[in-house]
Design brief:
about 280 residues; mainly alpha; globular; SalK; HTH_67
Amino acid sequence: MTSLPDGAVRRCAMLVNPFHSAHYFAPETRQELTALGLKDQGVYFAGRSAALGRVGAGVVTATFHNFKPELVAQYVPAVWEITSPQDVLDARLRAVDALLRRLLGEDAVASAELAEAATLALRAAEGCRPQGRTLYAALAELPVPAEPHLAYWHATTLLREHRGDGHIAVLLGAGFDPVEALVAHAATGKGMSEKWNRDLRGWSAEELEAGRQRLRERGLMDEGGALTEAGTALREELEQRTDELDRGPYEHLGAAGTARLTELAHRFTTAVVEAGAFPADLRG
């Protein structure tokens, strides 16, 4: 087993994640998928679940974890009566291509550094394991795009969902339901704000407050909605457990490769963030 510096797994993962996630908020994604006939949240649910095939609402709810089941059921499986998973995957890749060219510019898209980032991230993804990781496993069966900028985005998708699937297992083991997980993450300042948890995840203000009350009863949150000392410690413990489940890709890449991928991921993620890829009020 390769020795990695303390914190190396999380540092790299936290820089890889936003590069993938930027497309969820992109006009290019909405344009491409609405052209297929999809509407509203159907764009998100179809785009993110397409690799799973024509599955129903139960599978998507279980796989995504923190969405209100009734919201998922409004769109799934109805989206697959409108279009096909393959058409959605093709449209999503076209959207990502246009998005990255807009946010990064043609010089960065064609750069040797982005090609190097793709090589490193794909090598890291070779260390991922599918067991218990449904969404990652489905995505891993997709072909790797030929263009380096799209190959890098594809690899960041694999790494992101591999970690995400593991994180869900950790949350379940700690007894966090979907709402509790959302409000606890928001309380760290790194999760989505209440507005976005309502609008995108489907939970009402009352349901979110009920989740906070359950955390108060466990001594994890105070009356003002901030994490207590115990809550902060538990959140860190959950992230550490997630890091352990996510070591495989970075152990496979090695310490030097992980350090270089972290450096390049910082460069390209910073570029997409500074170009306005995310809404200003996204974070809690």
